[in-house]
Design goal:
Length: 677
């Protein structure tokens, strides 16, 4: 999923949408939150009576259609009001939601879910509309497929017959591998085993919808600012959305699991990111329950003195922000280029791997991150590979270690590179100069003229975003020389930036050379959730990250070897039974991607300083999907306390949570065998 909202990273998601999933994140320079995965600490809430959680948001949704959109701006709202089959607990385990129980066949191909009897649909006013039935899940998937949902790729090749139906090769949806066996039983038949299938059930594309209501609304279903255009089966009801103003939720009083909903009202206020001292001020005056902090703001030094014991740096999450390279730019509305020769030279340069590596090695990412997180916190958010190094494990090794073993075979430049989080393993001016020298020689032979001008758009109203891009410009030009490379910053209105990056309808609308306006948050618990999205023939995010529309014959994609990358990813995906072999093959694909320098990871979303009255580690947690988070974006289970959490409190809670999590995850893994029938 991409995320802007998250940072605004458009879209927790590219992932997120732009991107076809909840995860399309737009990189909001501003937010890059850090609300960690907050879990329970000592002390409960001392608040009396009705409890309200107050926070900020930065991007309005363009619709509320949880079935079809992949944007985080929508999912951040709808994940609180719509429940799917399963959800995450605070330790990241998948637990019952609409499905009170489930089973999988011994061959791993058939998943059967029993829908709870007390699951109901409600209107925005809280009136009961109908029971939630197994058929609602069938209706939801058919609608998502018919409407060509952005996140359809998550399941299109997984569910038997769905690809053929989506392509029009079969027209009867009854031939697709989803069946309502009765009102309380829905069954999915897969093409091949997916050990991570259940983690997909938290995504909107597999969510239910009531057919009668859907038909009654027609084109008015799930309108952006109309709470009455949805039915609700989740812990909250959406009460109002006012564009660039507020989003308000109220607890669903009839929700089947209302005892685990501790917050009565949620009030989100729109914040444009301009006044970075405002969230902290609003926290201190009691109008916000949690506040992101910006160590580069003028008021931070004073705030640090006053609230030092309460400033908490949260742990890194699985969202990866990055710098994309446009290898097939078509639009030049926002450019500093003055000639066709400059356009041609830039395009040729970005197609040259040594040139891209020079950018990757010449970019001081610690300085870049310090514009958001301050010098003290800069390293706490750094990420070096697209798939986080600890996202999965096999044979006692983290994914990052598996990648490193493959990467060193690509050349000596990778020998001493550290891929771990929270440090800059890429920045190396000497390597950058060496790679650039190779690139310049080859490019001059192709008739390229220097300096290469690289347009980079930025939201001019978001102070920290502007500062970050300026930092990137400074380090690259200092390392490579302005006679060789010039970063031309295009300061635009926020909507203009979104329209040429995150919200661009096709590659022709991607008007930039380098862009840090996107990120990706995983949708399910497998490396493919990251690596599939830029497969050149079918990847849903090639336009957002690389500037071309996916298809069979993109010349630029062929030139940079992306079809070779796709073969590696496809081969990994075909390994359906041996998880160790599967991850090893995905590590090979990630190593290729890292060496290509086509996308340059920068930071995680969390790992940032906050002030908070949230009881640490009560938020539902997950590294992927729509029902677990590392930020205060999901409100079921969340608890709040009277006083601001202290750093000491948080640390103790984190240590306790990590110990409990390890035990809980182990137990959940052992219990999986009971579901095989």
């Amino acid at each position: 999923m991409t995320e802007y909202e998250k940072e605004s990273i458009m879209d927790r998601k590219t992932k997120e949408k732009t991107m076809k999933t909840r995860k399309v994140l737009a990189l909001a320079g501003v937010t890059l939150l850090a609300a960690g995965v907050l879990a329970a600490c000592s002390g409960g809430s001392g608040a009396k009576g009705e409890q309200t959680f107050a926070f900020t948001y930065e991007t309005d949704p363009d619709n509320l259609n949880y079935l079809t959109t992949g944007k985080a701006a929508t999912a951040d709202i709808t994940s609180n009001v719509i429940d799917g089959l399963l959800e995450n607990d605070k330790y990241g385990n998948l637990i019952p939601s609409m499905a009170e129980d489930w089973s999988v066949s011994k061959d791993g191909l058939t998943y059967t879910y029993k829908i709870r009897q007390d699951a109901k649909w409600y209107t925005s006013e809280g009136e009961e509309y109908a029971p939630v039935k197994a058929q609602d899940f069938v209706t939801g998937l058919k609608y998502a497929t018919d409407k060509k949902a952005e996140a359809l790729y998550l399941v299109q090749d997984s569910i038997k017959g769905l690809d053929a139906y989506a392509k029009g090769e079969i027209t009867d949806f009854a031939q697709v591998g989803i069946k309502a066996l009765d009102d309380q039983t829905v069954q999915y038949t897969l093409n091949k085993p997916e050990s991570f299938w259940n983690s997909k059930t938290t995504m909107g594309v597999l969510a239910p919808v009531n057919e009668e209501f859907l038909n009654s609304k027609g084109d008015d279903f799930a309108k952006a600012t109309d709470p009455g255009s949805l039915l609700y089966n989740g812990p909250y009801l959406l009460k109002s959305i006012v564009t660039k103003s507020s989003v308000e939720f109220a607890k669903n009083p009839n929700y089947w699991d209302k005892d685990n909903v501790h917050i009565d009202k949620v009030k989100l206020s729109f914040w444009d990111g301009q006044d970075t001292s405002k969230p902290a001020e609003n926290f201190k005056d009691g109008s916000l329950t949690a506040a992101r902090l910006y160590p580069t703001s003028a008021s931070f030094a004073e705030l640090e003195k006053e609230m030092k014991d309460n400033i908490v740096y949260t742990q890194q999450d699985s969202t990866t922000y990055l710098v994309g390279t446009n290898i097939d730019r078509q639009s030049y509305k926002y450019t500093s280029k003055t000639s066709e020769e400059q356009k041609t030279s830039t395009k040729k340069a970005l197609l040259n791997k040594d040139f891209r590596q020079a950018i990757a090695f010449g970019f001081d990412r610690t300085a870049y991150a310090s514009q958001l997180n301050g010098q003290t916190g800069a390293s706490k958010i750094l990420r070096n590979i697209f798939v986080p190094p600890t996202f999965v494990q096999a044979d006692g090794k983290n994914f990052g270690d598996m990648v490193k073993e493959k990467l060193v075979t690509y050349g000596d430049e990778w020998k001493d590179v550290n891929l771990a989080d929270a440090q800059d393993g890429l920045y190396n001016p000497e390597k950058a100069k060496a790679e650039f020298a190779k690139a310049k020689s080859a490019l001059q032979a192709e008739g390229v003229t220097f300096p290469i001008h690289l347009d980079m758009p930025v939201d001019q109203t978001a102070t920290t975003k502007v500062q970050r891009v300026q930092s990137m410009k400074q380090s690259l030009e200092a390392t490579l020389g302005t006679d060789n490379v010039i970063i031309d910053i295009q300061q635009l209105q926020k909507d203009e930036v979104n329209n040429i990056t995150y919200f661009a309808e096709n590659a022709a609308g991607e008007d930039w050379d380098l862009s840090d306006n996107v990120g990706w948050g995983p949708d399910f618990a497998d490396p493919s959730t990251y690596l599939d999205i830029i497969k050149p023939s079918v990847g849903e995010s090639t336009k957002t990250y690389l500037g071309f529309d996916s298809g069979k014959d993109n010349v630029a994609a062929k030139k940079v070897g992306l079809y070779d990358y796709e073969k590696l990813v496809t081969e990994a995906g075909d390994e359906a039974t041996d998880v160790s072999k599967r991850y090893d093959k995905y590590a090979a694909a990630q190593a290729w991607l890292t060496d290509s320098a086509l996308i340059i990871p920068t930071t995680s979303r969390t790992g940032r300083p906050i002030l908070s009255k949230m009881v640490p580690f009560t938020i539902p947690f997950a590294l992927s999907g729509n029902k677990g988070t590392s930020e205060p974006l999901l409100y079921k289970y969340l608890e709040i306390q009277d006083k601001a959490v202290t750093a000491d409190e948080y640390q103790k809670a984190q240590e306790k949570w990590m110990k409990e999590k390890a035990e809980s995850n182990k137990k959940a893994q052992e219990e999986l065998a009971k579901h095989v029938k």
